[in-house]
Amino acid sequence: MNLAPLDIIALSIFVVLWYSYTQFARYRARTTHSLSNILRQLRVDWMTTLTRKDHQIADAALLGNVERTVTFFASSTILVLAGVLTLLASADKVVEVLASIPFTAPSSPEKVQLKLAILALIFVFAFFKFTWAIRQFGFVSVLMGAAPQYRSTEFTDEDRDQFARQAAKVLDQAGHEYNNGLRAYYFALALLTWFLHPYLFLASTAVVVFVLYRREYRSTILRALLATKGLQPGPITNQKTETGDSQ
């Protein structure tokens, strides 16, 4: 089976844009205020507060809510994968349905199966990201249980701050893996339009990148989160942050 040159170009641009945006978000977060670096700071604040109070019941509940959300996506991904694999055995019917849609590019069962296989790979990737995030949130639970006790005299303020920074780093990494899984969903939605037409696929990929960028660096929620620290969107000045990428 040979893909048309336009299909190959569209798929190549899709892969390049996904990879490039992931790398761009990771390195841009070091120099520009974004959801990634403000959440990093807030997670450090959370863990610092945790080491300076008697009970962590509320903190455990908050972490449990996040874990349940990630678990929901991991379970949903399995269901989506099952649906995609089922469609692989019904490629002929999919071609018939696509042929009935106006302005749809001509296709064949083999091409449909290839597109479905790529879609399945994306959801497999998302599943691995979600499950790794779940494990890392579990590590945070262990750290919360091992946090220096408020009334303990064995730990200095420096010890508590060091513990808080490292615990926040684990929590931050878990959040990044969760965001990577969510990003896979965004790009999977863009890939769905490939079944209709390569040009629509290209346009959808560009829209997904634009939406991700706007939410990361230009969203209202970013302004609200930065305001809690007296910050504004833009370059980071006189501030040391240790961040990764975000949604």
From TrEMBL:
Pfam annotation, one family: DUF599
Keyword Transcription regulation: no
Transmembrane residue ranges: 6-24, 116-134, 185-213
Keyword entries, A-Z: Membrane, Transmembrane, Transmembrane helix
Transmembrane recorded as keyword: yes
Signal peptide segment: none
PANTHER family: OS09G0494600 PROTEIN, PTHR31881
Protein name: DUF599 domain-containing protein
